[in-house]
What does this fold into?
Amino acid sequence: MKRVAVLGSTGSIGVQTLEVIEGGGWGYYAPLLACGRNIGLLMEQIKRFRPEAVAVLRREDAEAIRRERPDIDVYCGESGLLQAIEETEFDMAVNALVGISGMAPTMKLIEKGGVRIALANKETLVAGGRIVMSAAKEAGVSILPVDSEHSAVLQAFRGNEKNRIKRIILTASGGPFRGYTRERLEGVSVKEALAHPNWAMGKKISVDSATMMNKALEIIEAKWLYSLAPQKIDVLVHPQSIVHSMVEYDDGAMMAQLGTPDMRLPIAYALTYPERHSSGARRLSVKDLCRLDFEEPSAEACRALNLAYAVLQEIADTSKDSPAIALNGANEALVALFLEGRIRFVDIVDTLEKLIAIHEPARAMSIGDILEIDAKARKDAERLAGIKTLL
Amino acid sequence: MKRVAVLGSTGSIGVQTLEVIEGGGWGYYAPLLACGRNIGLLMEQIKRFRPEAVAVLRREDAEAIRRERPDIDVYCGESGLLQAIEETEFDMAVNALVGISGMAPTMKLIEKGGVRIALANKETLVAGGRIVMSAAKEAGVSILPVDSEHSAVLQAFRGNEKNRIKRIILTASGGPFRGYTRERLEGVSVKEALAHPNWAMGKKISVDSATMMNKALEIIEAKWLYSLAPQKIDVLVHPQSIVHSMVEYDDGAMMAQLGTPDMRLPIAYALTYPERHSSGARRLSVKDLCRLDFEEPSAEACRALNLAYAVLQEIADTSKDSPAIALNGANEALVALFLEGRIRFVDIVDTLEKLIAIHEPARAMSIGDILEIDAKARKDAERLAGIKTLL
It folds into this structure.
């Protein structure tokens, strides 16, 4: 019996994690569920998965749950979540929280120790890679990726020596706007940006996938997750999303992981690694494989990727991590503005380029520093995007 | 310093093995070279690679070499090769002999013990799988495949548990006649059959690739090499020969090995397994990857594959291995007849179907039994193909 805390249980990854646990028949169980505001779904999950504890964002939600389910420990707010992590017993945690708010819980999990972290929260590594990975190493806590690309890389690493890696190739579907010209991109709507051709995902990641910022963040994530030099991290566009990533070795062999676009596979792999168990993912058919294309990212797509490489170069040159934190925070703010209809799609990357061009690298020694740099970057991004903050 | 005996040194695989050893800079060296009749090339190899011993087929060749190079041990004939294996010291052997004649040397290598066998000789396993694998297991000798498909499977196995394998998928280029109708196949020439679209290979294997018998033999080989049930061995046609094979696991993941069509990669992998070293193989470019297609084998191509499945079913039902021995021997005889212009291309599989339909399974307990069944199958095949043997 493995006990899995699910942080972000009502989001896309959280829901699929619970499906995997339920469907796998491996005897896994979820003692802690944490979510934001989707209390309706949480109540259903409580009935179905019988957690010992839940954590929610708002006080009123916590009180409502306490009234209905006095048998459950109910925690509330960001500090409540940290307390829930401390006080609940479990063997692993899936961190599927969205955005920078996932970082403090990751650090808390590391501090708690003795747990495996299945990490779907990109921001934890993009912004906090150095601090998080070194704390995890010291605590002997392993961090396993829950994202199709980094899971594929991990799978393609197995049984090979690290010093033989020539490069990893993260595949990118290219999103809904693959091949679009700048002109055409200027007119795209929120609805179009959310319509990913292959994956059903949350809103933030769908927009990131359309701007290619998702891949840019994955480049930075890969650097920390696998201690790889940026020159060893490449991106190829693969519109079918069947090959989830590849690793090239110096004998000329490339190992690739293929699968249907189904997050249950990387979720299950992170939970059962290094073993595999049935994940519930649909198997590949010949139809899925009939044609697989690969191409270099377009000049327009490279703008986002180049931001990642520039940021990593800056970090390598200065040992100051703020450029990645700023890129991540600013992107998160800009995506929110785009979803609210306050800026255009193209304003996202345009603004990020401006922001990184003028960013002054600073050292981030703690989660506090990171949050501060993040908050400033969000404000700077809004200002650069021409948004007047109401205060 | 690893000492590698190269059996079949003047053939395509042998030549590439020596290239890999020379170019790898790993400090490998070839103390024994064995070949058939290509003495001109062998003399060059002697100068360049300075073996301690050589083995050739004909007495007159052996004598000529002895006169010119009295410093080298020269062995002659099939028994001479076995003696050379016994008397020369080496750590591993590449068995790249062509046809059934490669089997006795494999057994001799196992008997010698303390060596790794890098096996390019398919017939050893197709005809002698049961005997060879159990002898190797008993002697603690490991047998590693030198063929792009089985090497890819081995690479895709690494770091995974055997009980999680759903199936392996051997890829087939489809050869020069992919998509040809029966009618069109009836008119193809030897030259056309030898013109493989992707791989430069020996004549026998080029024709086998055109008939799909190469893949049929690989299915049987896979059964013995990896103790897999026939239902777990699939074939997909992949015209670009970039994905060399795949393994599907029961979580839905498929691990694939990609590479340029260059035998130096699987040769190097078999020599340095489980490590990787530079192989000299050209790296994949985006151009190589730009489009990868997969399709089910055509009805015509399935005829050869179905022979393999029928033979494996027969073996599973009766524990009598003769059907595979007969299929292999008859195919070898028929390919020779085709290359001599004495039968048509389509007569190869047509005759094999007739032969397997009337074959009476028999037990093969020794290499002697195998050679006897093999010889009879060759005669039967010639008779069924309408060739009158002159005796």
Summary: The CA atoms of residues 70 and 178 of chain B lie 51 Å apart. The mean pLDDT of chain B is 95. Residues 149-262+283-303 of chain B form one domain. The longest strand of chain B covers residues 165-172.
